[in-house]
Design a protein that fits this description.
The chain has 196 residues and is of the alpha+beta class. Helix content is 29%, strand content 22%. A hairpin with a 4-residue loop joins strand 10 (172-174) and strand 11 (179-182).
Length: 196
């Protein structure tokens, strides 16, 4: 349990997963709730975000830029990045205006974990972004299985022949070192597979 001093969490006892959740909410889903305006690539000034979080909840009154740097460093999944006094979420956006990414050549294969009941539709229509801005793909079956378990106890792992799709004109973007993004992936490049 975290110790509090007059309702404010002490900086050296910060709960980084809770900070990550609120930062993700602000930068991925509802920036307007925090009165933030993301630029076309999802960036916002660190100090602007900190002011918004401090205003949102009294317990974040002592939150500083170093806390955000440490939050990113302690995360097992690289969800955010800080550069030149700005911060952004790397993937997972559901904001209405699509953020701009630079296309990049993907690895030969990428993977997507999903619920069994969606496989038939994916085989017909391909992978679509649904309620997110992009389709999220993993570099390995382990990560795809982890993501798929959020949707089903027995997820299906789909293999995407990403390099072939790229050569056919499908755009891919880097999310982080384990996640790739795509606008959509046609069904011809998607097959069910077993964990490797």
């Amino acid at each position: 349990m975290l110790k509090k001093r007059q309702g404010i969490l002490m900086i050296n006892e910060r709960n980084f997963s809770e900070i990550s959740r609120i930062v993700s909410h602000a930068l991925r889903h509802e920036p307007w709730v925090y009165e933030l305006a993301l630029d076309s690539e999802g960036w916002v000034q660190v100090e602007t975000l900190l002011l918004a979080l401090r205003t949102e909840q009294q317990k974040w009154a002592n939150l500083c830029a170093n806390d955000l740097v440490e939050m990113i460093g302690q995360s097992g999944k690289k969800r955010h990045e800080i550069r030149d006094g700005r911060i952004r979420a790397l993937y997972g956006h559901s904001v209405p205006e699509k953020l701009r990414n630079t296309p990049a050549e993907p690895p030969a294969a990428l993977y997507h974990g999903t619920a069994p009941e969606t496989v038939v539709k994916i085989k017909e229509e391909g992978l679509k972004s649904m309620d997110r801005q992009y389709v999220h793909l993993s570099i390995d079956t382990e990560m795809a299985l982890q993501v798929g378990r959020r949707k089903s106890l027995r997820p299906v792992i789909l293999k995407v022949t990403a390099l072939s799709a790229w050569r056919a004109g499908v755009k891919f973007y880097t999310g982080n070192d384990r996640i790739w993004l795509a606008d959509m992936v046609p069904a011809v490049f998607v097959t069910a597979c077993t964990a490797e």
